[in-house]
Amino acid sequence: MNVRKTLSAALAVTFLATTAVAGEVGHYNPGVLNIRDLLVPEPGFYAALYNHYYTSGRLNDGDGDPIDSIHVPGPAGPGLHLDVDVELDIYAAVPTLIWVSDWRFLGARYGAYIAPTLANSSINAALSTQNGFARDADNDSFAFGDILVQPLWLGWSLPNLEAAFGYGFYAPTGKYDVDTVTLPHGAIIRAESDDNIGYGFWTHQLQAAGAWYPWTDKRTAVVLGTTYEIHHDKDGFDVTPGHDLTLNWGISQYLPLTQSRNVVAELGIAGYDSWQVTEDAGDDATSEVQDSVHAAGFQAGLIQVPWGVSVNFHYFYEFAADDRFQGHVLGLNLAKKF
């Protein structure tokens, strides 16, 4: 992550103590998965590697407008207007192990998966840095983030329809520290370290998805998924992040590239819309604004059917965001069925 600012540390620390810019964001990242990944696959064991890159040069206020400067009030005068220059780059690798059983539960295929994260930072840590516009956030650390465990994943199939439901949780296993800063008048404030990877709180995740197939061979899929997050208290702060609701949508098309259909291309359009649906709670909550983000993009990939290997690339452009970063998402995902 590289975040550049033009504030002096002394002025910025004072600003941190008196003003807030953005609140917490949830664990679920809607720009990581492929279009059909919310649906339970056929029985078997799968290994996948999700490579996720997020870049942004824009931090928005609660009205969706870019924050280009801030005003720091002076003790006995008009204060100062200071320019803000944001440059954010985050890379994450998410190795995922998936198991789908042969037996049925409530008429559905049963599966489960586990997904640890390796990253150089998190959006939450970057937001914490930008809340104060204070610290030097130029670092190249790469460490474990919070882990997602989904012990319940059910999938129902009909010739032209498919549905899935899952419950999972994020455990705060990632690198997470809280810094303390002493102000000139002696007050002590806490701030999340800018090189944090983990978010410092547990999250429960409920997920439902459905697909409509115009043809029974499933070469075309219209997919919609919903994810609801319930967060626990944040370590080191008196704050409970508000609940989040996310919609993933997409249209995926398989195109055989050989007569034997051993090699298949996948093309699609996709996007996501995410809203914070309840306010952050607690004495340390930094914003009463409920953040949101909206994005659209495309996906392109190849499947080698006999080998059970697939590779997919996708890109999303975030065209609107409130109380958070607005940027671009690139992903390169690999998967293998055993």
Can you tell me about this structure?
With 338 residues, this protein is mainly β. It has one domain (9-337): Lipocalin, CATH 2.40.128. Helices cover 6% and strands 52% of the residues. The chain has helices at 9-18, 123-132; strands at 44-59, 69-72, 80-83, 88-105, 108-115, 118-119, 143-144, 147-157, 161-171, 178-182, 188-192, 203-212, 220-231, 244-256, 263-276, 292-304, 309-322, 325-337. Strands 1-4-5-8-9-12-13-14-15-16-17-18 form a twelve-stranded antiparallel barrel. It has a two-stranded antiparallel sheet with strand order 2-3. A hairpin with a 2-residue loop joins strand 17 and strand 18. The model is unreliable at 1-21 and 131-137 (pLDDT under 50).
Shape annotation: globular
Q: Major sheet: size, sense and barrel closure?
A: 12 strands, antiparallel, barrel
Query: What is the alpha-carbon Rg in Å?
Result: 22 Å
CATH fold-level name: Lipocalin
Order of helices and strands: HEEEEEEHEEEEEEEEEEEE
CATH architecture: Beta Barrel
What percent of residues are in strands? over 45%
Total of helices: 2
